[in-house]
Amino acid sequence: MEYALYLGCNIPLKKPQLEVAFREVASIMGMTFKEMDGASCCPDPVATQSLSVDTWMTIAARNLAIAEKMGLDIMTICSGCYETLKTTQVLLEEDENQLKKVNSVLSKIGYEYKGTVKVYNFVEVFSQDDMLEKIKSLIKRSLEGLNIAIHYGCHLVRPSKIMRFDHPEKPTKMDAIVEAMGAKSVPFAAKLECCGFCARLQEEIGFKLVEEKMTELKGLEVDVDALITVCPACTDQYDRKERTISRKTGKELDIPIIYLAELMAIAFGVDETKLGLNTRAVKPNKLMEKLKA
User: Fold this and answer.
1) pLDDT beneath 50, residues of the chain
2) Domain 127-292, what fold?
3) 165 CB-contact burial (10 Å; exposed 0-12 / middle 13-18 / buried 19+)
């Protein structure tokens, strides 16, 4: 269970607490990693691909080639990085001409991608049956009594013909991990809606998407204790805009946004001071008080 750990840009630079939580959880679960020295931005699956598919794929192939030299498959902890790297892996397996085109550029800087590396997201690995049983065995603080809403986002399970580890319209893998820790996954209509992070040129779209999802969650018959994400951009989008929308509209939107590895770290009994949960705009104080009670 050793992987080349690909951190991407967003988490190390903007959300290092998410990396801390993941490393704590992975260590408890007995997983080991090697750092990908020299790895670059994945690059971004929306902006860079929109400008040049060839550039996007070549940069991604360079990252794949680094892991290939290490002799390890890649573990990602960001949904955007996962989509970029796995899409490149799959497309270059299927298109020999594109692989030659990419390698003709990489050869100028001393790299070659041979197509022997696989790309995984931690949700994909942690949701396997044996890993779910392991998670259950490692619980120090049961999450029983918590009502958890889950946000899959756009990049984790789609495009489905490439990701191929969960149902694109009815995904269950994150739900299985959350419920293995004793919490209840709450059904809601907007579960698969985009967070709106990439609508930065028309930011009102992003505000609208956040407002609709969080308003629905506040209107459910049960009190939702947290919204769980696996993408740093989604985490930031909901956390920051939830507070802004509350000020603008007068709505009491106060559901904390928790990265999945952070929730696992809480369940595994990791010291809360290591997790930096109070760096969020919406503090998870109610959630932690409920657990202590």
Assistant:
1) none
2) Rossmann fold (3.40.50)
3) middle
